[in-house]
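call fold(seq) -> tokens
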Amino acid sequence: MVLCSSCGGTIPPEADRCPTCHAPLPSPREPEGASSLGGPAAKDLHELLSRVATEAAQEDSEAPLRTLSPRIEEGFRRLETWRNGAAALGISLPHLPGWVRQAAALDSDEERWDEILRTLERQAHTDIVRALEAWQRQTSARLTRLEAYEIPGTGERKWLLEVARATRAGDLVRALELRQKVDEVVHLKERSLDEALEDLENLGILVADMEGLSLHVPGETETSVGQLEGLLRHGKVGDARVRIQEARGVLEAHLQKDLPQLFREIDARLAREKGRGRSVKAEVALLARGLRALHQGHMVEALRFAVSLRNQKSLDPFALAEGEATGNE
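ret:
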């Protein structure tokens, strides 16, 4: 008899999935959860559940449901709590749904279940401790990166020590709860810093693109890029992000004033190239998209189209000069 690992239903020999919940049939070579259940306990649990399922399938079965002892109930509860916390560490602990509890309640051999649960707990404990140790090393490295930008991580490092103490004491519930809190705080700090660095990088690209097109870039904006990086290096992430947005607003205002003239010049040059018999369909399409972005108020997007147009060979001033010289010869 093959049991569904999801709902506990019986799967017919010829079926490849459970007829009740439609879960796929586990491989016979490696039953689901075998690696976590561990050797004899896996075989013991499988045989026990098979027997209980057979009894439950019999209509005249009068096997009474017992109340689980506090020890067994606590074992089920602890494993489920660990399972929820371990999932965030990438650990998949065996799931013990309600029908497994029913199997335990139908069985009179409580010691057998106590041994099964203890075996599961030992394996789960080993896996969680190993994962927590790896997480502590990774989080320490993440904090070191934040501290390089003078973003304080003293509180988080204290929590890391508390996670280590709780782990050594065997209080995995507290260790997993603290891990989640630390991870959330560190993630928020990382996201704020990464977004600021990305904004600063985009500002530098914007300045470089404007200079590449010989558009006016206010001198104070060029200077502020270096100053903003200094603010980030000193942990002033909030201040830096405000000033980055201000600098970006100044540049976009200049683009709104200068881009229309640039696009007119490009349009005139394309007209000349078309008059010489050159195909400029691709360039005209880019120009149209740039003008549309400009009219919609998307200055940075319009600038990108202007940069793409600059990179077209037909608009390369050196190529044009060479072509004109060749024609004059």
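Residues 192-328 form one domain.
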